[in-house]
Amino acid sequence: MKLNVAILPGDGVGPEVTTEAEKVLNLVVDRFGHKLDTSTGLIGGSAIDETGTALPDNTLDICRNSDAILFGAVGGPKWDSAPGNIRPEDGILAIRKELGLFANIRPVKAYSALTHASPLKEDRLSGVDMVIVRELTGGLYFAEPKKRWEDESGKQAVDTLLYSENEIFRIMKVAFELATTRKLKVTSVDKFNVLETGRLWREVANEVSSDYPNIELEHMLVDNAAMQLVRAPANFDVIVSENTFGDILSDEASVLTGSMGMLPSASLSGPIGDSNTSNTASLYEPIHGSAPDIQGKDIANPIASILSLAMMLRYSFGLYDEADAIELAVQTTLESKYRTPDLATDNSIVVSTSEMGAQIADRINKYK
Ligand code: IPM
Ligand code: MN
């Protein structure tokens, strides 16, 4: 198979972790007899520096002409006060919107080799295996008005929490379809008791649920969900939520796995499985950000990026054996006690970003 992949390393540790995923991609392509064509594009702060915009047209063209996109991270203190309110984050937000990538799939799996690396009690973590389905192109992130102004009462700012029935419907479909392949349970998260959007969210969840009689639908208020995620995380299977709640809950959930550096994600324009027939490229990225404080030190954890690559091979290309090989290599590398500093505990072998990539690649070599 010929894989046509856009690579957008971005800022901070983005380039470092993406390099390791690329290393693994090249190896897998070679071992399994595929062909690879990659194009690299600028995005975020580094794109602002070179072109004055966070998402240059050329980058968007590269993405439109690819089958899938591997994205690193954007942002950093250098651009916090960029002129004209241009922000590195606008780059990734614009790609999501332009390509219609409304469904963000964030699997949260606690590897048994890592349960002691989490600050939570080990007995809470056994059996943790959930997927957060986050709505990605609506809500507070995008709706208008979104602005700042000043009047007689001083400075003011507004963001708008708007959802249409259609936007909620399509993300619910993604969640329910996913649930049919898992434990037949969907937890829909909202703020029904306060927000109008929360009430519409719940109404549409109930409507969609009537098409899936085998799937149990549970509604949960977002504040309670935040608590249950650390109190009894193994009770969750598929969680579906609006954009901002999903952003917050997924960072929280990453603690269950031991580190932010473990969680991959896929951003799709429809239900999983439909994406390999869709004309739009899906985007794969670690959920962690650019981590400017550790940039350039070769200590960032590349596993989230490497696992995002596995999701790409599975969802965009239907390459299941290849994806399984990567995930197994990650698991056995962890079982062999190799850890980047974010996961280090007493008896672990602490390695750099590039050494972690090499250990994982080495194991793929051994299996295949
Ligand atoms: C994420 C990130 C982004 C988001 C930022 C970088 C805009 O935190 O992918 O979770 O908030 O969506
Ligand atoms: Mn986030």
Would you write up a description of this structure?
This protein has 368 residues and is α/β, with parallel strands linked by helices. The protein folds into two domains: 1-103 and 270-368, Isopropylmalate Dehydrogenase, CATH 3.40.718.10; 119-257, Isopropylmalate Dehydrogenase. Helix content is 39%, strand content 20%. It has a ten-stranded mixed beta sheet with strand order 2-1-3-12-11-4-5-10-8-9, sandwiched between helices. A two-stranded antiparallel ribbon has the order 6-7. The longest helix has 18 residues, at 14-31. It is globular. The model has no long low-confidence stretch (mean pLDDT 96).
Largest sheet: 10 strands, mixed
List cofactors, ions and other ligands: 3-isopropylmalic acid, manganese (II) ion
Q: What is the CATH superfamily classification of the largest domain?
A: Isopropylmalate Dehydrogenase
Query: What is the ordering of alpha helices and beta strands?
Result: EHEHHEHEHEEEHEHEHEHEEHHEEH
What gross morphology would you assign? Answer: globular
Mean pLDDT: 96
Helix content: 25-40%
Total domain count: 2
**Biggest β-sheet: strands ordered side by side in the sheet:** 2-1-3-12-11-4-5-10-8-9
Beta-strand residue percentage: 15-25%
Helical run tally: 12
- Number of extended strands: 14
In short:
By secondary structure, the chain is of the alpha/beta class. The protein has helices spanning 14-31, 45-51, 57-64, 89-98, 122-125, 165-180, 196-209, 222-231, 243-254, 303-315, 320-335, 353-367; strands at residues 2-10, 35-40, 68-73, 103-109, 129-135, 147-151, 154-158, 185-190, 216-221, 238-241, 264-268, 282-286, 338-339, 349-350. The two termini are 17 Å apart.
